[in-house]
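Design job #97: recover the sequence.
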């Protein structure tokens, strides 16, 4: 199917509580949510009960395919999805400070993705306050550059404040990162579990200039890591506000 455009107050779902499969035809993103910013913030889209497959009907796709894309969108509720075989599972771009209308991503399984959830900022440091990521599993593809949750990138800065994150990331055999911070992660509640099956990959990477501080709680459970060694790479002048717990 070509890109499915969901209105900012639209509803796109499977049949009742049953998941319906949506296959890619090469168009990216597979699902795009209409903008409700800077006005009409009260409306919100709901996407639920879907299997989103970036490999397409003949298995030839996957590279440069985004499963769900939100650009200038707030108050969107995405739940009970399986997103697989995509370059990016969910991308959120340019959300403003609309605290009462934060986006929610719940009960989601991402499989064979290069980046699970990506927050893309802008030159003026877009913010993503009060975002909820709850009960989300991310299984990364075998790529050393794969990332479970990515906040900003080398050219843009994203700020994630007062967020709630409860997620499990399984690194591929080539490694990757559970969480990569290029912007700011502050005042949040984070419960992140990162598992690796080989000796390659890191739990958290904090890049130069990034800020991870003043969080209400930040617990990193590391599985398959040396319990006596840190699974955090900190390239910033700011110290990581993280408690590591081996399992």
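Job complete. Output follows.
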């Amino acid at each position: 199917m070509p890109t499915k455009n969901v209105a900012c107050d639209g509803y796109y779902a499977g049949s009742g509580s049953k998941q319906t499969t949506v296959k890619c035809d090469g168009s990216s993103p597979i699902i795009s949510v209409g903008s409700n910013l800077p006005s009409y913030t009260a409306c919100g889209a709901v996407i639920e009960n879907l299997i989103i497959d970036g490999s397409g009907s003949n298995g030839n796709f996957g590279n440069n395919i985004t499963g769900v894309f939100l650009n200038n969108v707030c108050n969107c509720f995405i739940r009970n999805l399986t997103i697989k075989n995509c370059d990016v599972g969910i991308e959120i771009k340019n959300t403003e400070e609309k605290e009462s209308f934060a986006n929610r991503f719940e009960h989601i399984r991402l499989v064979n993705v290069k980046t699970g959830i990506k927050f893309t900022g802008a030159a003026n440091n877009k913010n993503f306050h009060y975002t909820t990521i709850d009960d989300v599993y991310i299984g990364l593809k075998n790529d050393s550059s794969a990332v479970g949750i990515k906040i900003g990138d080398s050219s843009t800065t994203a700020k994630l404040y007062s967020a709630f994150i409860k997620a499990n990331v399984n690194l591929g055999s080539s490694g990757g990162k559970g969480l990569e911070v290029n912007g700011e992660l502050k005042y949040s509640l984070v419960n992140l579990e990162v598992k690796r099956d080989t000796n390659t990959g890191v739990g958290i990477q904090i890049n130069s200039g990034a800020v991870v501080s003043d969080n209400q709680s930040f617990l990193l459970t590391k599985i398959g890591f040396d319990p006596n060694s840190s699974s955090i790479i900190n390239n910033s002048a700011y110290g990581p506000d993280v408690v590591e717990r081996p399992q």
